[in-house]
Amino acid sequence: MAPRKRPASRAEKPRRMELLQQLLTEGVTRTYVLAARLQVDERTIQRYLKEQEGGADRRIVFYTELPPRILQHMRCYPQTWFSARDLCRVLSQPRSYNSRMGHRALQVLQREGLVRARREQRDPSSRRMCTRYQITEAGLRRAKGEASRQ
Q1: pTM of this prediction?
Q2: Are residues 69 and 114 in the same domain?
Q3: Average pLDDT over residues 33-45
Q4: The pLDDT of residue 84
Q5: Are residues 43 and 29 part of one domain?
Q6: Residues 132, 120: Cα–Cα separation, whole Å
Q7: Residues 107, 71: one domain?
């Protein structure tokens, strides 16, 4: 069995980025060669190259973009309880939104006191549970404030 690679340490990232830049100036362009030289996964090299080109980290963009959109939608239906999946299905213009991102965004909103959560059965015939969220008064005030700024 082949030895497993050790996950790349974040503390070593600046050194790896510097070494990557050196290799690129030497003319090494194949991602699998760069990955072998830096002893990281090829996907890590692809992320580094995208970062050097000025590509934004999509998680940061979506997490700053998604909560206000969730609040705006929930403001239209203040008495309704939504699951993360329901909201992402309604808001999914970029296909890369998924229910996990929606769930995390809703957890952030819950910690801020803008939504409340409850656990319940998905439907009467199922034993599976899901978390549903409803906007609070503080959430309504914030959503109205964001709507007036636009």
Answers
A1: 0.56
A2: yes
A3: 88
A4: 86
A5: yes
A6: 7
A7: yes
